[in-house]
Design goal:
The chain is α+β, with helices and mostly antiparallel strands. It is built from 3 helices and 9 strands, in the order E-E-H-E-H-E-E-H-E-E-E-E. The strands form 3 sheets. Strands 4-9-8-6 form a 4-stranded mixed sheet. It has a 3-stranded antiparallel sheet with strand order 2-1-3, covered by helices on one side.
C-alpha cells in the first residue's frame, strides 16, 4: 500500500514522502495515529500541487539550514558528567545533554534532530553527533565527555 506521510516517521521516511508499506502497518498503525494518509490517485495529484507550491519556500529554508550547518561544522562541545574512578559515567549522556550544550553556545536545535551512535554514551571520551537540519542538510558535531 502506498501512503503519504504527514510527519517524519523514524526508519520510514520524512514528512510528505510517498512510501510503500505493508497494508497492516498502514491501516493499523500509521493512518489511525494520524501519521499518514492513503495515497489514492486524487491524493497524489493534490500532494504534487502542494509540493510544487512549497518548492520555493523549501529552497530558502534549505539555504538557512546550510548556513547554520556551516556555523556548526567547526564547533566542538564539552559535556561534563559524573563518573566513577574507572571512567564510566553514572547514567548516560544522550541527545538531551547535547542539545543543552548547543543552547549554551547559542544554537537552539531540537534534540529530536540530533542522533548519536548507540543513542547513549556511558564512557568518557570523544564522540560525534549527527544533526539533521533539513532533509538534505546534515552536519556532524564533535563532542567530548569529561569527568566533573
Amino acid at each position: 500500500m502506498e501512503i503519504i506521510l504527514k510527519q517524519d516517521v523514524p526508519n520510514l521516511g520524512l514528512k510528505d514522502d510517498i512510501v510503500k508499506v505493508k497494508n497492516g502497518y498502514a491501516n493499523n498503525y500509521l493512518i489511525p495515529n494520524g501519521w499518514a494518509s492513503q495515497a489514492t490517485p486524487s491524493a497524489k495529484k493534490v500532494h504534487a500541487e502542494n509540493m510544487k507550491q512549497r518548492a520555493h519556500k523549501e529552497e530558502s529554508i534549505k539555504q538557512e539550514a546550510a548556513e547554520l550547518a556551516a556555523k556548526l561544522s567547526g564547533l566542538s562541545l564539552v559535556i561534563g558528567a559524573k563518573t566513577s574512578t574507572s571512567g564510566k559515567i553514572f547514567g548516560s549522556v544522550n541527545t538531551i545533554q547535547i542539545a543543552a550544550s548547543l543552547v549554551e553556545k547559542g544554537f537552539d536545535i531540537d534534540r529530536k534532530k540530533i542522533s548519536i551512535e548507540g543513542d547513549q554514551i556511558k564512557e568518557v571520551g570523544k564522540y560525534k553527533a549527527t544533526i539533521r537540519l533539513h532533509r538534505e542538510v546534515k552536519v556532524e558535531v564533535d563532542f567530548e565527555i569529561i569527568a566533573e
